[in-house]
Automatic annotation (TrEMBL):
Key words of the record: DNA-binding, Transcription, Transcription regulation
PANTHER family the UniProt entry points to: TRANSCRIPTIONAL REGULATOR, GNTR FAMILY, UXU OPERON TRANSCRIPTIONAL REGULATOR
InterPro entries to which the protein is assigned, alphabetical: GntR_C, TF_FadR/GntR_C, Tscrpt_reg_HTH_GntR, WH-like_DNA-bd_sf, WH_DNA-bd_sf
Protein name, UniProt field: GntR family transcriptional regulator
Residue ranges of domain HTH gntR-type in the record: 6-73
Amino acid sequence: MVTSGNSTAQQVYAWLHGRILRGELEPGARLSETEIAGQAGVSRQPVREAFIRLTATGLAEVRPQRGTFIGRISVKAVLSARLIREAVESDLIRMVSANLDDALLTRLDEQLAAQREASERQDVEAFITLDDRFHHSLAVAAGHGDVWDVLEGLKSQMNRLRHITARVFDHQKLIEQHGAIVQALREGNADAAEQAMRLHLRQVLNDLPEIARSKPEFFTK
């Protein structure tokens, strides 16, 4: 797993971070330094450093006399990230509407087609990657690609929820919501584009309670 370039601890952290976000390591699961070191093919020291960093970001927690465990998904953090995303991305979509070009519409249409294909294949990882690419493309088109990088750093807990919901719920609703955003842009209707974006980013308010009821052990307030 470890390659040249970034430090060993950084690579172990990135590997574990991705597994936690994708739900491969479920909330509440115990983390063993020895097992992780063996899986990664490294010593225990970089694993220990990765655990410390995961704990600092809220993705792991240390329980005295028991060990390190995958942290539960913070409902508060999910709702906060959603609120910030809506405030920022509703402004971004207006900026895009004011400076729209055909090349962007073509690119967004291609991304929608790719999302449909990923959904048909039931490829959850590809679908989430394409979802992020759609929003990143809009941020870049607005001239604020760096803003998306900031948002990405705030939404770890939301991303964990997204991987769960993408396995449970039909992707079609999200694709339709993306399509409504693109259609409003195509029509030059900034108000409709903003409304469509807000509606899309509020979908988590419907999904979160249902998932929390079915998997209460995964969540914390």
